[in-house]
Every structure is written in C-alpha cells, then in structure tokens.
From TrEMBL:
Record carries keyword Disulfide bond: no
Keywords: Membrane, Transmembrane, Transmembrane helix
One Gene Ontology CC term in the entry: membrane
UniProt source species: Aspergillus vadensis (strain CBS 113365 / IMI 142717 / IBT 24658)
Protein name: Fatty acid hydroxylase domain-containing protein
Length: 304
C-alpha cells in the first residue's frame, strides 16, 4: 500500500474536514480528497477487518465515484453539441457535413439509451477493476497531488501512446471480418454527432478502452510516479477529445487551427464520411506517415 491513511477511531465528516484544514500545505482539492478517502475507509473498516478494507474502499468508493464522474462529464460535454444540433439555423455554417440534416431527438435518445447500456455493462466493471490494478502496478493515490509539470508531461505521453495504439487497432477494425464482428456498430452514423463518441460494440469499447487505461499502468509500473489524480485528468481529457471529434462541427477557435498536428473534428468526420482513412484518435502524424489520410485531402496528398 502506498497510502499512509490512519483513520481515527471515530470522527464525523465535518471533523475530518476540519482535521484536513489544519494542514496549511494542502490545497482545497487535496483536503477534499483526503477527508473523502478517510470517510470511505472508516465506514468500510467497521464492516471489514484490516487490511482488506483498503482494497474494499478502492473497489467501491473510488470506483463508483470515478464512474459517476465519467457519466457526468460525458453527458455534460455533449450538451453544447446537442444545443448546436437543436439550433441549425444558428450553427449551420459551422457544420462539417452541412448537407445532412442534424440528428432528430428520436435518434439522439436512441443513442443515449445504447450508450448508457454500454457504460453500465462494459465500462463500469472496467472502471471498478482498474483500482486493484492500480495497486498492483504501483500507482499512487495518497497525498500530495503531482505538480502541474509532472501532470502535463505524463498526460502528453498518454495522448501519444494512446494515439499510436488507437491508430493500428482502429485500422485493423476496418479489415472485413473484424469490421463486421466489431466495428460496424460505430459506423452506423456517417455524419457523427457528439453523443456517438462512445457508440460502439462491447468488444470495441473494451479493446479501445485498454488504450486509455494501459499507458498509466505501464508508466506507473516502471516509474512508480503516476498518481490516480493524473489518471482521472487524463481520462477526462481523452473523453472530451473523443466527443469533440465526433461533434460534426468545426469552429474558427478549434484546437486544430492552433495546433496543426491535432486531428480535430474535421479530421475524424472525414473518416465517417469516406469510411476509410484517418484512423488516429487525436493526432495526424500516423495517417500522414502511413498514407491513410481520408477522402479528397488524402488523394491530393498522395498525388503531391
């Protein structure tokens, strides 16, 4: 165990927060993290003997909180794109496939129901099981939190490693048998919208999910310097990236206009429109290097 928590024999939630507040070096988030962890451990310690209550806490409290955060972040990030689709006259000029009608309320509700089923049946067990794996691979969850420099470097590594994994696996998914067995579900929408980011078969959800949770586990096992907070920030950013890539809209302030290596929504929209090419998740370099840029843009690049 890399945690040094030592819960008092009896304390209320406000008392734990007051105890955390006595340390002036703790930030607001660190105080909240500390007393939330202690509260969960204390509750479980009354039911399960040590040291098993630490593992029980990881499997229940943190796992459930992480899953709930995943749900809130996913659907909250989809709201701007739902609003854009509901106001086509206002946002039509930013629509990438502007000749196709926005998704109807019925289509979006059908998508929501399927995604909720995938989240609860497939993703929730993966999220809960990640935490004992975190212990096994040496990831940290005790205080202090990592500094911003460490967090930024590690998340950048995760983005590039996941992008490489995603490129080759996604490209394999377009091979006939794998496409029919696994990937066809995701291509139900030739003009994607924000909610479709995680509209995929259970096998695709699990296999691509390994590209998200795998890099922190591997780096943590080698360095012992990966914190759970870094993982949570990484998963949230990866989630936002996937939703934005499927939004169907390209605004003048989109990241790809500032950072040319970034794929963006126009890049991934071409994958859905032309079916092949643009297999990467976040960046452009693998598709450019391997000659798999989609559509007219790819044809022009090959000619040049």
């Amino acid at each position: 165990m890399n945690s040094t928590f030592a819960p008092p024999a009896a304390a209320t939630y406000p008392e734990l927060y007051a105890l955390a507040s006595q340390n002036p070096k703790l930030s607001f988030l660190e105080k909240a993290w500390w007393h939330t962890m202690l509260t969960g451990i204390m509750t479980l310690s009354q039911l399960v003997r040590p040291p098993m209550y630490f593992l029980c806490h990881l499997l229940t409290s943190i796992g459930i909180i992480t899953f709930l955060a995943h749900e809130i972040l996913y659907f909250a990030r989809c709201i701007p794109w739902i609003i854009a689709d509901a106001l086509p006259t206002l946002f039509h000029r930013f629509k990438i496939q502007d000749k196709k009608a926005p998704p109807s309320a019925k289509e979006q509700w059908s998508c929501v129901k399927y995604i909720l089923a995938i989240h609860f049946i497939v993703e929730m067990p993966m999220i809960v099981l990640f935490h004992p794996m975190m212990e096994l691979f040496g990831l940290k969850y005790a205080l202090p939190f990592p500094d911003l420099k460490t967090l930024a470097i590690q998340i950048t590594i995760f983005f590039f490693v996941e992008d490489t994994y995603h490129y080759w696996l996604h490209r394999a998914f377009h091979w006939g048998p794998l496409y029919r067995a696994i990937h066809r579900v995701h291509h139900q929408y030739a003009a994607p919208f924000g909610l479709t980011a995680e509209y995929a078969s259970p096998w695709e959800t699990m296999l691509l999910g390994l590209g998200t949770i795998g890099p922190p586990l591997v780096l943590g096992s080698f360095t012992g310097e990966v914190h759970l907070m870094t993982v949570l920030a990484w998963v949230a950013l990866r989630q936002f990236q996937a939703i934005d890539a499927h939004s169907g809209y390209d605004f003048p302030w989109s990241l790809r206009r500032i950072f040319p290596l970034w794929g963006g929504s126009d890049w991934h929209d071409d994958h859905h429109r032309y079916f092949r090419g643009n297999y990467s998740s976040s960046f452009k370099h693998w598709d450019i290097l391997m000659g798999t840029v989609a559509g007219p843009r790819g044809k022009k690049m090959r000619q040049e």
